[in-house]
Structures are given as structure tokens and as C-alpha cells.
Amino acid sequence: MKNIVILGSTGSIGKNTLEVARNLKDKFRVIGLSSNSRWELLSDQIEEFKPTYIALNDSKLVEKIKGRFPNNNVKVITGSNCLEEIVQKKEVDIVVSAVVGAVGLPAAIATLQQGKILALANKESLVMAGHIVMSLAKKNQILPVDSEHSAIFQSLQSGKPGEIKRVIITASGGPFYDYPREKLCDVSPAQALKHPTWQMGQKITIDSATLMNKALEIIEAKWLFDLKIEQIDVVIHPQSIIHSMVEFCDGSVIAQMGMPDMKVPIQYALTYPERKALSVKSFDLSSIGNLTFKKPDMEKFPALKLGYQAAREGGTIGAILNAANEVAVQAFLDGHIRFTEIVSYVEKMVNDHHFIKNPCLEDVLAADIWARQEIKNALFKRIN
Ligand code: NAD
Ligand code: MG
Q: Which residue has its alpha carbon closest to ligand 1 atom 30?
């Protein structure tokens, strides 16, 4: 029996993780939950899974949850360090990091320092500080939840690290892959939030439309699998059936496939190295018909170029790229900037920032704060 904590339990990955835990009650006990949204859903989760701990940063949520569970049978951890505190509880075996954004970094670090398994969906923590996160991780202490990285992790089991020629990360291309380039500046948040193959949270859905998600995944792959930039390729595969591939030195290419369903990589991260039964939509190639592939268009989707630049140059660029992107995506969702301006603003922040080659954690966090403030200033000037 393993004790798990889910950071971001009311989100898309969080809910899928609870579904996996619900189906494997004899293997997993949910002892901790955390969220900063949707208190009714969180209350239902508390009622069903009866966790020992809840971590809540939002004081309004604390009041509501304490009101709903007045008998103190759930311990509520509050304050800005609540995620780090909950992962450090001694009973915890596995932490599923399913929060969105930079808030995941300190909790990822605390999880690894405590020697616990980190099932990682929060790619932002690797994008910001992959060199720090990976230096703390023992072999297989971080298990990827991102579907592409789970696919690479599974495919890598066919060979040894020295035998890898390259990885090929697949991308659905998002809703605008075939959309006319000159009309991209006019797409609305509602259009951008319609992902063709995956149901996800808002931020990652917009990242998938700009292809910034793939940029973040290039950086994530570099750190997780210790790859050189020349070993990371991206291919557009609109059906999202092949979740990614590894080409070995003998020319063999191993792919992991399946219907798009995040429960598959989540469950594999939780049960690794074992596999357990999971009921998923049947895999019927004849009804899928065609699997198609295209070269990514870096001119139409400049986020990809930024992803390669950040992966190549390292240092503080990842933190800047991530923070600027978080703010720009929110500004687009709030109707303040155009779709194409998301990546333009990120690029400007990456170019303007004071680069540090080997940043410590404080440097990374300072770069994050700088980028947020700088882009907010730029947006403020624009809007007013
Ligand atoms: P989401 O927006 O649906 O959920 C985010 C969750 O994090 C919510 O429960 C929210 O309350 C919580 N949260 C946000 N800020 C918090 C804070 N400060 N403290 C505590 N909780 C906080 O997002 P999602 O789509 O589930 O994505 C989560 C992460 O997983 C992201 O890093 C994303 O890139 C990654 N990911 C998601 C998918 C997917 O299919 N959704 C696939 C691969 C990777
Ligand atoms: Mg992914």
C-alpha cells in the first residue's frame, strides 16, 4: 500500500489521478490533497477519499473547508509554504505534482529532498530549474506524467542510455495548425481553448495552441533524459495516437501508442515498474484510419524556436520563458492581448533579461519575479 499526495487535485490531471486511485484502492491511499480552486469539488474529494491532510493557500478556501468539515478530522495546512509542508509528512510515499505553473517548483524540490517519489505533471518546475531539480533526483525518483515523456520513458526500456540516437516528441499541433497564419492574430480565447484531442486545464490548452507547450516539453525532455538538443526532434501528429518515440543507434524506433487518455501515463507513473489493468477506449487502428505526420512550422509557431533556444542556452532563460508565458497567457485569456502577442511578449522578456549561466535557486526565483513584473509593466503601458 502506497500513500499518495496530490497537489492540484481539482484540476484535469488531479481528477484523473483520483480516478486511477479509485480503481486501485488496494494499492493506493490518498492521504493528502491540495487545491486553490473549486471548493465544492474539493469537499467531495475529501468526503470520498478521507485524506489525513489538506494543503490550502487561499484563505477563503480554508474557511469554507473548515466550515464543511468542522470536526477536525482532516488536518488543514495553510500558508504560502503549504505545498512544501504537505509533501514532507512522513507517511507520504508518492507526490503527484499536478499544479499548474511556477508554484510547483518548491514542492518538487521538497519532495526529492525527502526521498519521495515525484510523479511529475508540472513540467514548469523542470523548465524553470531543471539543473537543480535533476541534481536532487536519484534514478527513477521522478516518474513522468506528461504523456510524451511517459512514452519516451517507456520506449527507453528497450535500450540503454548510451544507445539512444534521438527522441521524437509528437505534437497534435493544436487547434490552429492548419489555420491561415495571417488570421492567427484574430483568434479568440474561446477558439484557442478548443483542443482537438485532449481535455486539459486552460493554461496548457493555450500553450498547446501556441505550441509553447511543445517548447516546454523540449526543455522537460532535455532534463529528464539528459539529452543534447540535437537529440530532440518534434513532429506534428494530429491524431495523438503515437505519444512519442525513441530512435536507437541501430535504427530501431520504439514508439508508445494508445488512445489519448491521461490516466494511462498517470497510472504508469504510480505503479511503475508494474502495469495494472485500466479500462480505456479500445485501440482500433482501422477506425482511426490514418496516422499522419508533418514537420513543425517554426515561422508560424515561433514558440518552438524559443524552446530550442532555452534548452540550448539554459541558465535563467527557462525561468524567464515560463514566467512571461504564464502572465501572457492570462492576459490573452482576459482579452488584453492578441493570440500572436503571447509569444512576442515572451520573446521580448527572454531577449531583455539579464542572463545568468549557472543560477542557484534564488537566482531562478528572482528571474521569475523579474519577468512577471517586467511583462506586467509592459502590458500596463499597452492597456492604459
Ligand atoms: P488545471 O488548471 O486543470 O489544474 C491545476 C490545479 O492546480 C487545480 O487543482 C488548481 O486548483 C491547482 N492550483 C493552481 N495553483 C495552485 C496553488 N498555488 N496552490 C495549490 N494548488 C494550485 O491544470 P492541468 O491541466 O491539470 O495541468 C496541471 C499540470 O500538469 C500543468 O503543469 C500542465 O502543464 C501539466 N500537464 C497537464 C496535462 C493535461 O492533460 N491536463 C498533460 C500533461 C501535463
Ligand atoms: Mg504533453
A: 121
Which ligand minimizes its atom distance to the CA of 35?
A: 1
Transcribe 324-370 into DSSP letters: HHHHHHHHHHTTSS-HHHHHHHHHHHHHHS---SS--HHHHHHHHHH
Establish whether residue 201 lines the binding site of ligand 1, counting it when its CB lies within 6 angstroms of any ligand atom: yes
Ligand nearest to the CA of 12: 1
Q: Give the confidence band of 70 by pLDDT, cuts at 50, 70, 90.
A: confident
In angstroms, the CA 52 to CA 72 distance is 10
Closest among 340, 322, 95, 142 to 218, alpha carbons compared: 322
Distance 171 CA to ligand 2 centre (A): 8
Closest CA to 296 of 284, 307, 312, 282: 307
Dist. CA 25 → ligand 2 center (Å)? 27
**pLDDT category of residue 195 using cuts at 50, 70 and 90:** confident
pLDDT digits (tens, 9 = 90+) for 259-307: 999 999 999 999 999 999 999 999 999 999 999 999 999 999 999 999 9
| 253-257 vs 242-248, strand pairing mode | antiparallel
Helix (H) or strand (E) holding 210: helix 202-210
Ligand 1 in reach of 35 Cβ (< 6 A): yes
Are 339 and 332 a contacting pair, CB within 8 Å? Answer: yes
Report how far ligand 1's centroid is from the alpha carbon of 8 (Å).
Answer: 6
Neighbours of 143 (CB within 10 A): 23
Average pLDDT (13-20) is 98
Q: Which residues contact 201 (CB under 8 A, 6 or more apart)?
A: 11, 12, 13, 100
Does residue 244 line the site of ligand 1, with CB under 6 A? Answer: no
Residue type, 285: L
User: How many C-beta atoms lie closer than 10 Å to residue 219's C-beta?
Assistant: 28
124 lines ligand 1 (CB under 6 A): yes
Split at pLDDT 50, 70, 90, the class of 188 is very high
Beta pairing partners, 5: 32, 95
Cβ neighbourhood burial of 231 (10 Å; 0-12, 13-18, 19+): middle
For the question of whether the overall pTM of this predicted structure is more than 0.90, the answer is: yes
**Structural domains in the chain, sorted by start:** 2-144 (3.40.50.720), 147-309 (no CATH), 315-384 (1.10.1740.10)
